[in-house]
Amino acid sequence: MSREINVESLTDRDLLSLVVGKLAARRLYSGSITALFDEGAGRSKHRLRLFAARELMKRALEETLRDGPVLSSSNAVRDYLRIHFMAQEYESFVVLFLDSRNCLIAAEDLFRGTVDQTVVFPREIVKRALYWNAVAIIVAHNHPSGSAAPSLRDRYLMRALDEVLQLVQLRVLDHFIVAGNVVLSAAAQTE
Q1: Domains, the chain, ranges and CATH?
Q2: N or C terminus: fewer CB in 10 A for the chain?
Q3: Phi and psi at residue 147, to the nearest 5°
Q4: Contact 148/132 with Cβ under 8 angstroms?
């Protein structure tokens, strides 16, 4: 008979030991869960298990976003983005393509930049939106610096994207900035 485990009461290292075993958890864990998902870290079989666990979580959250309107599950969007950008040391730009019911069709990492900027081409977003037959999108990018505050460049990009995408009747529902565990919504800022 298996007993149920209250995972909320476990420490990070205890949780990790459930995934990779006690000895590996002791070797891998050094006080930060995020560091375990660092792309620059070694690829031991235990790290591969952690990457697999991370990918499974992303896929489970994607399923949630496909099953109903993303606006009714904003926490799932935020969780998905947190996991997607976890431990990324460079900026990247993600687009969530949505159907007429605002359910997720696809999520794509379209642009990759440097440590402090990403060049975004609205034309490419339009191409992918037409490919997916999307009627709305949610865009997101990360700030590896740790500050979720939008830069002047971010504000300009948001305005430019809105203008360009309106021309092809594609709605931008939100623009998220992710910095560590902080997920800032541009839509929430303007309300």
Answers
A1: 9-68 (no CATH), 74-190 (3.40.140.10)
A2: N
A3: -100, 125
A4: no
**Pair of tokens at residue 48:** 């591969």
The residue type found at 154 is D
3-state secondary structure of 84: helix
The 10 Å Cβ neighbour count of residue 115 is 10
pTM (predicted TM-score): 0.72
Question: What are the helix (H) ranges across 7-87?
Answer: 12-20, 22-28, 33-36, 45-67, 74-85
Taking only the tens place, the pLDDT of each residue in 24-57 is 767 766 666 666 666 555 567 666 666 666 667 6
**Helix (H) / strand (E) containing 20:** helix 12-20
Distance (Å, whole) CA 53 – CA 19 = 8
What CA–CA distance (Å, rounded) separates 117 from 120?
Answer: 10
- Mind listing the pLDDT tens digit for each residue in 96-116? 999 999 989 999 999 988 887
Under 8 Å between Cβ of 100 and 138: no
Q: What residue type is assigned to position 10 of the chain?
A: L
Amino acid in the structure at residue 54: R
